[in-house]
């Protein structure tokens, strides 16, 4: 139905609304049309104030009825102070510089913007006010389109079922449904690829909002150990069937002379790597205790030492992710997992352990080692850490420095900004979201 609203400034606004619409939604439309915030609006019908929760039909509002809109001045002092933060009818800011400064000063709001609207957040952290105005106008147009679509969908619900044009619009709307309504989609010949992509995009947006840490880089589990008296950063991997040491690491630890070459073979999994032999027993130190350990020696220069499932079981180890510790011997020893996302002065892990491209993928948890030689034909299965999708190393050139400068302007230290950018492979939006959330 159509209603007419007259403002105190004698401005006349005509709205097409549904009779079941709430007063609050009518005020939202008037906020766009009359540029008056909802909080300042007071709607009157037949001299009586209309509450936000009331529906038009319940108040007796009918087609072509007249409403009066009064503008409340109760907060005129605060409104005057914030007048520069208002928006024009086209969605642009009345005072873009004041608007930008106000948003920048709200850390929580900036954090939300970086998660929900990275483009707008990027413009606000920049210095181009014209671009800021363009983005604000674009967002206003998008909201207007969405509002019109909602109004059209609402009109279709009450359309004449025998109206051919209305039925065509209903068919077009059904074609845009997501694929969990695929029965209707197939009835009208929906393009399933389009629906699937829409579902993927919606799933991605939901993940950004509710599970942003899922996009962060995952640091693997490392602990400090000593192998034959030599300190090492040991990679703890319960998916690897055997404990693995590289040839170079075994030589550095003085264990290569104990390698039994009768256990040569090939470790097969995601790829292949050569098994040089086996060291049957050597001492390792975890915390203040010593434990016997056996190793499979691989020709893998990218991986030094991997503490696998065989020794985890033998020494009754527990991977406690809640307290971020590895317990050994049923709880007699507890050592913390090393961190790689702290500031440089606090970092436990060397940078080479954080380079995901260096993680070996020659053998997986299902990989089998085929030993050779005439002695004891035993099958030994080994595994190496599952590699994550590789990232290109971020070039710390002028572009990287520009990103640092923008984030430092928001009040963060340079060290924290550099670490966040490296953590997210140079992605400025994700780094800013991480800094605001931390």
Automatic annotation (TrEMBL):
Pfam families linked to this entry: Asp_protease, UBA, ubiquitin
InterPro entries, per the entry: DDI1_N, Peptidase_A2_cat, Peptidase_aspartic_DDI1-type, Peptidase_aspartic_dom_sf, UBA, UBA-like_sf, Ubiquitin-like_dom, Ubiquitin-like_domsf
Region feature Disordered, mapped onto this chain: 358-398
Record-annotated Peptidase A2 domain positions: 232-311
Gene3D superfamilies: Acid Proteases (2.40.70.10), DNA helicase RuvA subunit, C-terminal domain (1.10.8.10), Phosphatidylinositol 3-kinase Catalytic Subunit, Chain A, domain 1 (3.10.20.90)
Keywords: Aspartyl protease, Cytoplasm, Hydrolase, Protease
Compartments, record wording: Cytoplasm
Domain UBA per the UniProt entry, residue ranges: 398-438
Annotated Ubiquitin-like domain residues: 1-76
This protein's name: DNA damage-inducible protein 1
Organism: Brassica napus
